[in-house]
Amino acid sequence: MNVPRDASSTLDPKFDSNGLLTAVLTHHQSGALLMIAHMNEEALATTLESGEATFFSRSRGRLWKKGETSGHVMRVVEARIDCDQDCVWLKVEPAGPACHTGADTCFFRRIDGTTLVRD
Amino acid sequence: MNVPRDASSTLDPKFDSNGLLTAVLTHHQSGALLMIAHMNEEALATTLESGEATFFSRSRGRLWKKGETSGHVMRVVEARIDCDQDCVWLKVEPAGPACHTGADTCFFRRIDGTTLVRD
After folding, report:
1. Which residues of this UniProt protein bind Mg(2+) (chains A, B) (predicted)?
2. Nearest by CB: B8 against A30, A88, A116
């Protein structure tokens, strides 16, 4: 009898129809949400083995280590997985801004009605 | 000339080919990642108007207010959006556990190699 994913003590990631799961990165100290990206099986394995966040770039169609060009590597301090094992939470120590705009976090704007406020 | 989504001061959510975006919920005080879900346009509008996290359930194919049966409503303290406006971060005050297992967060297991540890 198989143990369901939400009660299991074994890693058994559930990839979607595109072979991907969602990765959520927060700052290991401040707790701030930094970015969201996607991982295929290889990206997840690489991340867990190397301790550096590695994703699957859907636009580029290839593995993409965060910081491979910018140097803004995200070192994994802790990795957790959700109940149905289709989402991974990485608490990371960032070597630089998470966002391509240069902001520390991709979530640099607050929603106020239909306005976005930078605060 | 249109301002690109990552520089705009106007909410202009980018829904995927299924009409959905990702919503990330964290506890407004502890910063803990509670859960991930999806929103269509109506779910996002309902969330922002009502101040209570409402999603689109892909399995049920309908709008789903978190806590509609359990009572574990997630009150939105702050809503933020990421650079390309395809992901929303909600800082919430939960009225109860986020996870269907009864855990405070869906991310109740840490990944240690191929083992999942509850800590």
Report:
1. 82, 84, 86
2. A116
Residue-level pLDDT at B66: 97
B109 shares contact with chain A (CB less than 8 Å): yes
Q: CA of A93, closest CA in chain B: separation in Å?
A: 16
For chain A, how big is the Rg over CA atoms in Å?
Answer: 15
Helix residue ranges, H only, chain B:
41-50
**Which pTM was predicted?**
0.96
The full set of domains in chain A, from first to last, is 21-96+103-117 (3.10.20.810)
ipTM attached to this prediction: 0.95
Whether residues A32 and B33 touch (CB distance < 8 A) is answered with no
Interface membership of B32 toward A (CB under 8 Å): yes
A1 has pLDDT over 70: no
